[in-house]
Amino acid sequence: MYQKQILLEKLREATASVLPISLIVMLICFVLVPVDTGLMLSFVLATAMLILGMGLFTLGADMSMSRIGNYMGAKLTKSRNLPLILFVSFALGVAITVAEPDLQVLAGNVPEIDTSVLILTVSVGVGFFLMLCMVRILFSISLRTMLIVFYAVVFLAAFLSDADILSVAFDSGGVTTGPMTVPFIMALGVGVASIRSDENAKADSFGLVGLCSIGPILSVLLLGAIYQTQPSAAESGAGALVSSTVELGRDYLHALPEYLWEVTMALLPIFVFFLIFQVVSLKLRKLPFLRIMVGILYTYLGLVLFLTGVNVGFSPLGYALGAALAEGWKMYLLAPLAMLMGWFIINAEPAVHTLNKQVAELSAGAISERSMGLSLSVAVSAAGGLAMLRVITGISIMYFLVPGYLIAIALSFFVPRTFTAIAFDSGGVASGPLTATFMLPFATGACEALGGNVMTDAFGLVALVAMMPLITVQVMGAIYVVKSRHASEEPALPDFGDNEIIELWEAC
């Protein structure tokens, strides 16, 4: 009964995330932009599959992935073996990122790089930086110092890289922080931090997600220097038109075996890793072990439904809608509509509401949930508008990312370090599943219709959305500092237990 209630809650959250953007899209198609009836029917079916898939996936991730991360983190802590901690962290980082649904969707939309190559490259980047995160925790290295050093390396590498790879690289950093990756990273961080006994140990468990998002950027930039792209192999994202319900059903049935296999290959490393760990070290009792197995099954089914719905019906309509709006005077509606969709996307993300609540508690009520939510809505809405401006004008992504990250780093000197850590961790909260599954194809369709370069002009949308919380959360932190000055020179932050810290990411 309890599990059924949780599933219903997850389905409600998924409905709240997917339905608003779906209704906006349908309204646009009914009033402004005519689309093929078969494509619309496919979109409606895909919407239902996304809701069911996201519900099952998030439930499964909570039941299996979070628990596996917690168990492994605890065992690693007890071992106090640095080489083992580093090796397992790297292996887990690679294995869990391979199965990240947002990464799967992004990789499938990049026309010039083989999907498997891009996924593996991003996963290795996450694994390597997860090792560095463990080193940071164990040796109490300043988060600000590491952010400054590695982002300096990132932008140096970016200026030396080919323009075609820049936007994809930064988008890769934004899609890795999802419901698969984050629970693992946070659980490992909290577990390893418990080795230390100093007062800053718990605070140092923050910031891991923000650091791990740097790894994919650097690894994809490196890939761009050695990988031979094949633009001729790109496929249109419009999808095939169907003339009957039988053809529609055939499209989904033909796609289903492909994604059954893809998801099997994505989850197999995690499954094997867990079984080996169970036999060698964990030795869980029957009931906890069976719960994790059931959770993995839920994760598998949810991911299959999610990816099938996204690729067959959801993303194709986004692509077609973007292409249709890029024609004639409708081009000027691209930015306003993207801003509107960005506003509703961020408001519908359950993790965002959890983030707003945590910031309100962290600031002892000085920053209300309403003001935090409003600031994030404005930020993500602006990101959508800027992304469409790039599609129309072809402005380089670097003109937005360089000043944006400079502002974020500069703010870190004026706000409590916990706000900085949460800000960089929460970059992935704003760039939820709908950003990669609909907004990116929408930008791609518009870009191709306008004759632009998809690699340089369309990609980068996820990066802009992910960058905004870095600034917004810290601005809220600065407001908190100002409001707190009358009470004390050094504002005291309330202490949070480990479970409360992880809760934010379990809502993703």
**Average of pLDDT:** 82
- Give the tally of structural domains: 1
Q: What is the number of E strands?
A: 0
Question: Low-confidence segments, ≥5 residues, pLDDT <50?
Answer: 232-236, 495-508
- β-sheet strand percentage: under 5%
How many strands, which pairing sense, and closed or not: the largest β-sheet?
none
The proportion of residues forming helix, as a percent range, comes to: over 70%
- Write down the secondary-structure element order: HHHHHHHHHHHHHHHHHHHHHH
The rounded Rg comes to: 22 Å
Describe the global form.
globular
Distance between the termini: 23 Å
Q: So how many helices?
A: 22
SS content category: mainly alpha
Write the layout of secondary structure elements.
Layout: H1 2-31, H2 37-79, H3 82-98, H4 101-109, H5 115-139, H6 143-160, H7 163-175, H8 181-193, H9 208-212, H10 214-226, H11 245-282, H12 286-325, H13 334-348, H14 350-362, H15 369-393, H16 398-411, H17 417-425, H18 427-430, H19 433-449, H20 454-458, H21 461-484, H22 498-506
Helix pairs in contact: 1-2, 1-13, 2-8, 2-11, 2-12, 3-5, 3-8, 3-11, 4-5, 4-19, 5-8, 5-10, 6-10, 7-10, 7-21, 8-22, 11-12, 12-19, 13-15, 13-19, 14-15, 14-22, 15-19, 15-21, 16-21, 17-21
Q: If you had to describe this structure to a student in words, what would you say it looks like?
A:
By secondary structure, the chain is an all-alpha fold. The chain has one domain. 79% of the residues lie in helices and 0% in strands. The protein contains 22 helices and no strands. It is globular. The model is unreliable at 232-236 and 495-508 (pLDDT under 50).
